């Protein structure tokens, strides 16, 4: 499978970039993971919105779902302009009924509830879930495809179950919204130090730091994570593309 970083900022997008959004593809199947602010704009650097086969949402904070409404509009306009005739599945949890219901739009998209206790199959991807530690219900995803594994922590503070969940992943896409020594936990986020600790304990192949803060020197995040993890560490950036 191949992953392209569409957006990687925590909270809101930096000018000309986007908050959380990742495009996962395999054999032509296109899955968008999270659809935050400015994701629809950045996504069009790579594909047309109507080429998406499915969308999956980790949780209903604005920096992960802000562009769902404009995705609806893009597909509706495409229906009238170029005959788009699909119904795009948007997977989300239904712990928050109002937000879940808003995923469905006319005959254009359908919200589909996932169950954290049941593996989900979307196209070529098998997805397991783990509820994270965050102010609202949020789910990390362990995505397997042809023997390769991507783990996306979504938004979370550090907790020990993440280690087993991330075990031996080829790529760990871990949020690092704070620097070493800061209190990430009270906001429901991890520090660079914790992301490195998680990568080390889970014995992953590569650590990608994402959901980045809008302050400080970002390269410091990599250095701090490297104090705990001796494998490859990459800072997420717009358009970063990885095959696994
Ligand atoms: Zn977030
Ligand atoms: Zn959040």
Tell me about this structure:
- This protein is α/β, with parallel strands linked by helices and 244 residues long.
- The protein has one domain (2-243): Metallo-beta-lactamase, Chain A.
- It contains seven helices and 14 strands.
- It starts with a strand and ends with a strand.
- Residues 10, 20, 61, 63-64, 155, 211 line the site of one zinc ion.
Structure summary:
This protein is of the alpha/beta class.
The global form is globular
CATH superfamily caption: Ribonuclease Z/Hydroxyacylglutathione hydrolase-like
- Give the end-to-end Cα distance, rounded to a whole number of Å: 6 Å
Instruction: Assign the CATH class.
Output: Alpha Beta
- Uncertain runs are none
Helix amount, in percent?
10-25%
- Summing up helix and strand content along with how strands pair, one would put the structural category as alpha/beta
Keywords: Zinc
InterPro entries: Metallo-B-lactamas (IPR001279), RibonucZ/Hydroxyglut_hydro (IPR036866)
Organism: Lederbergia citrisecunda
Pfam family, one: Lactamase_B_2
């Amino acid at each position: 499978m191949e992953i392209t970083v569409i957006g990687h900022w925590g909270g809101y997008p930096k000018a000309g970039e986007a908050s959380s959004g990742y495009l996962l593809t395999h054999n032509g199947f296109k899955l968008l993971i999270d659809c935050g602010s400015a994701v629809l704009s950045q996504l069009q650097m790579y594909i047309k919105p109507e080429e998406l086969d499915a969308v999956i949402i980790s949780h209903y904070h604005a920096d992960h779902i802000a562009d769902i409404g404009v995705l609806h509009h893009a597909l509706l306009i495409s229906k009238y302009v170029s005959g788009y005739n699909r119904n795009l599945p948007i997977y989300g949890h239904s712990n928050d009924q109002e937000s879940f219901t808003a995923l469905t739009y006319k005959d254009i998209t359908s919200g589909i509830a996932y169950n954290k206790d049941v593996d989900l199959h979307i196209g070529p991807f098998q997805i397991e879930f783990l509820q994270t530690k965050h102010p609202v219900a949020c789910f990390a995803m362990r995505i397997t495809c042809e023997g390769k594994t991507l783990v996306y922590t979504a938004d979370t503070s550090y907790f020990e179950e993440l280690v087993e969940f991330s075990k031996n992943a080829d790529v760990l896409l871990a949020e690092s919204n704070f620097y070493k020594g800061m209190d990430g936990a009270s906001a429901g986020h991890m520090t660079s130090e914790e992301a490195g600790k998680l990568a080390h304990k889970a014995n992953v192949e590569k650590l990608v730091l994402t959901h980045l803060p809008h302050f400080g020197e970002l390269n410091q995040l990599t250095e701090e994570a490297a104090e705990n993890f001796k494998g490859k560490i990459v800072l997420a950036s717009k358009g970063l593309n990885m095959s696994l």
